Amino acid sequence: MIDTVAAPETTFPVQLKMLLEQEARYQPKLCGLRIIESAQDNGLRMTAALRDFQVKELLSLTRFFGFSAESFSLAVNLLDRFLAQMKVQPKHLSCVGLCCFYIAVKVSEDEKNIPLANDLIRISQHRFTVSDMMRMEKIVLEKLHWKAKATTSLHFLRLYYSHVIEQMPAERKKMLNIERLEAQLKACYCCFSFSKVKPSLLALAVLALEIQEQSLHELTEEFQSLKQYSNIKEGDLICVREMVAKCLAEYSSTKCTKPDNHKLRWIVSGRTARQLKHSYYRIAHLPTIPEAAC
Fold it and tell me: What does the alpha-carbon distance between residue 11 and residue 163 come to, in Å, rounded to a whole number?
């Protein structure tokens, strides 16, 4: 049976307690992540760089199909958990990654918007077959004990945001933008280092950096309460906040190789195009992280 995350309760303390109790169940094994981190790029072993490249591919697909942040966040979680548990050869990474993406889409998206596996393979430009993908999907689910849903940083970020925004004066609420925060979190997902950070800490660090940069001093006391509720140490928060700042600075630089969904549009044949839904072609330019409102 596929595992699910329980529906949130109504009050903030109860919702946060529930997420905190669940987050450890869905974190990648630290020992497995350390093996990946220390691996040499010899073409035979999984490396952090290969993982990051695959995550960027999943972000490209997310944008191409117009899927939700939930789908992308869950896909990254599934991928990291599987890579930390299994010794995946680089040649199999694309199949593993696409399977994690497909599982996440089937969990998070409306059934009418889920593409056929064959179309997904073709659009992502991979050479394995639907049968290969179905076999790999079964392996992934079995190794993850059918826990196809997960508590991710996105859940914490949205909960933290919804709580602090209520404490802000109406004229200041536009200073804190959830779309911008989620875009920053997506950029962090593309960096392997954050796979080792627990979801609540990463989400709070993203929020802390934004509060600092927007000089939202009225949230200082409320943010301290969030930190205490989440049982997060000040030193850990400062460290991860600096990691987030560095990641976002690199993401914004011209040297950063960002996910590119433009290449996907050219590989769809006329026959496939007639079979695909119109929504598949809503391809926007690669968005930058939104600027905060003035």
Answer: 10
